[in-house]
Write a structure and sequence with these properties.
The structure is a single chain. With about 300 residues, the chain is α+β, with helices and mostly antiparallel strands. The chain has 14 helices and seven strands. The strands form two sheets. Strands 1, 2, 3, 4 and 5 form a five-stranded antiparallel β-sheet that branches. Strands 6-7 form a two-stranded antiparallel ribbon. β4 and β5 form a beta hairpin. α10 crosses α11. The longest helix has 15 residues.
Length: about 300
């Protein structure tokens, strides 16, 4: 793909944000690991199909000052603004995090995690569509194996976008994914489900804004109507795909184990933990990420 590198846009976060923390998370957290995460500190490069279009875009993001990032876009002219908007969502910069620190001021456990991972916000899949495809690929196989298969799909059916000297494989847009035929390490049933997911995306059933506008329970019910999407996958799509900031992941056993340990509640049920998380509103998804980061990656030293 040959496109133009457009002049950088400056984006400001509302509330704490550290791009380097996001990059460390992507490098170290196996389920989210991406080969493009590594590089100079405070820099991310990624490529993705632009929502609702046939275009692909590449994005180079650098942090220039606390809470401020500079974003350069490689894309066709008409895709630049939609790509910037989508990249804001991917980095969770479209959410006002001004009240995030106040949760930790009231809850010492949360406060300690916020101090340990300052400025860490969820880094999302590029779209709910891509998150849904990931849940289908990874079902019943190892995460590392699923990541290799997803990369092969991107290389075979997506677009190669050069971003700041690096060639990145962008996941195929829904129209292209419908043409998938090679097994690529997947059984036929998963190929069929990927095609069905691509059709759902084309029909507007996996739009981030629409999913976030719904009541969370209704959004989860709608997602579970898709072939191969169960309760756990639906939550991942809504939280890590659409970027809903305020969902308690009641299907994430590792999150629950970490909450029991840090809160000293070894006998707590999931319902009990959900009640604890009520005090995290309106950032339940974000705070859940801090618990998962604490469990899955080596702690980062506070700034």
């Amino acid at each position: 793909m040959t496109s133009t590198l457009h002049q950088p846009a400056e984006l400001r976060a509302q509330g704490p944000f550290d791009l380097a923390a996001s990059a460390r998370f992507l490098e170290a957290f196996t389920p989210a690991a991406r080969p493009d995460a590594a590089g100079e500190p405070g820099t991310l490069r990624f490529a993705f199909p632009v929502d609702g279009s046939r275009w692909h875009a590449g994005v180079l993001v650098r942090q220039r000052a606390p809470g401020t990032v500079e974003m350069s876009v490689v894309a066709e002219g008409e895709a630049v603004e939609p790509a910037i908007s989508q990249a804001r969502r991917i980095l969770s910069l479209d959410v006002d995090g001004g009240g995030f620190s106040t949760i930790g001021a009231k809850d010492p456990v949360v406060g300690e995690l916020q101090a340990r991972y300052p400025g860490l916000r969820p880094v999302l899949f590029h779209s709910p569509y891509e998150a849904a495809c990931w849940t289908i690929i990874t079902n019943r196989i190892r995460t590392t194996q699923a990541a290799r298969i997803k990369q092969r799909i991107a290389e075979n059916y997506g677009e190669i976008v050069e971003v700041d000297g690096q060639r990145l494989a962008s996941f195929p847009a829904p129209e292209a994914l419908q043409q998938i035929e090679q097994p690529l390490g997947l059984p036929e049933v998963k190929i069929g489900r990927l095609r069905a997911t691509a059709r759902a995306a084309q029909e507007g059933l996996l739009e981030a804004e629409s999913l976030r506008a719904l009541d969370a329970e209704e959004a989860l019910r709608q997602l579970q109507r898709l072939p191969g999407i169960g309760p756990f996958s639906a939550q991942l799509i809504l939280v890590r795909g659409a970027g809903h900031p305020d969902v308690f992941p009641d299907k994430e056993a590792r999150l629950h184990a970490e909450m029991r340990e840090l809160y000293g509640l070894p006998e707590a049920t999931v319902a009990d933990l959900a009640e604890v998380a009520e005090s995290w509103r309106p950032y339940r998804s974000w705070i859940a990420l801090l618990f998962r980061a604490h469990r899955e990656i080596r702690p980062a030293a506070p700034s």
